[in-house]
Design goal:
497 residues, alpha/beta, 13-stranded parallel beta sheet
Amino acid sequence: MVHHALRISEIVHEICGHLDPDSSPTWRSDLASMAVCCRSFQEPALEVLWRDMEDVEPLLRLIPDLQMLYVHRGGSWARSYTIATTQMTPIDWERFDYYARRVRSIDHKLDHSLCYDIFTQLASQRRGPLLPRLVEFAWSFLRGTRITVVELRPLLAFTSPPLRSLTLNGGEGTGMDDESWRHDVEFIQLLDQFVHSMPLLEELVLSGNLATLHVEFSRRLPNLRIIGVFPSETHWSLQEEGICSMASLQHLHSLSLLRCCVYRDSLPDTPSPIGFSSLENLFLSESKLTSLIYILDGLPVGRIQSIEAYTNADDPNEDEPRSLLIPVFERLSRFATSLTTLDLVLFARVYPSPADGSSNLMTFLGPLLSLRLLKFVHLGFDVAPEDGLIWADADIQRVACAWPHLVDVNFKIRTEGSSLSALQSFIDRCPDLEGLRFPQSTFTIRRYRSDGDTQDLSFGGRAPLSAGIDMGVLNQAFKWMLPVEVEVGSVEFEGVA
């Protein structure tokens, strides 16, 4: 048998690949030193050094006869560059391309006050893309910049067919929330140019007031797999038109939305899917309950695996939001054959109070018991201290039986009526359980991992303990842990697994 050994070139690539910001604070200078020390290290070191860039100015330093001046842009002063000579020579381009062809990703941060008109000047002298291997591009505009055709056009210089991920952050106060650009022919033509220059784009993230462009991009980029829309203006929100445009994408895998707002006079009796045929991961934040219900109704059965929703009630002082929580859980029960992660936090008091006759937590959890594939569950309600929901031991046993694949469960819900003995249900029924947290508990289990990390597990309610803690049971349940520490009030119990 021939012993497999790495070639010298492979060893060099491995060495260079392990130099990054996490491994060494001097990684850039280390790579630069390696690049000049010998020919064997030169190419691998330069590949890593130029692969991921947080600024575009190193590229500009490759241009001869570059002049810098400061201009007033977006309410602040920004550096601006221009080429003194009218044309770059073939030798100039050869030097530029030698480094530019190595760039794979650019993440231009908001605090880089650079005026980028220079890239329009460069692109006008080239038939091909400036960065032919760029696959990820993120650009943040200066705060207060009003986004126009003039502001967006220079970014075309960074687009090319290999591009797979595009992130545009408009910041705040960019003046696009009125959507007047929809009637601007030149603006629409520019969007078409963007689409034609990156036909294989898979990930699109739009934030700030540039989030208003999500409809047009969704209609023009059929290969999108990941979409994030995060508007910054509180008075602007996602509407039904935008959701429908994204729902029609056949390859959409993950969808993240901020301030989704769909109004409905009444809830439909039966779900009516609107698309999302390939969607597996859904994230909503600061959205209306009616919007969450609308999207859940639009999802097909058998595909979605993860749902995370952080919602606000339409008006916590009205009775209508209180009636929407149970329909949310009823909609979730449709995904019994696929859903494994559920993270739902309701910041407004949208549940019925005990005075309404629905003080048992199982009133809400009941529909979720059909989700037998759940592994990660995080549920939180904003419950006042006097409105704790009843959760008896029998109810806890039902949950443990219904979710046998649980790995981590975290209930941020104020409950009453449970006891320590119910912990045995999760130990018996959930062999993969690693995390168990319930607030307002009578005791906390602190586990110490072999790698030194700690993890707190809370359980129980406000009912007093009726029996002592069986450390043998706890140690058997969590025997893969090192010391187990249990605290009840001011009394501590310790055990070693």
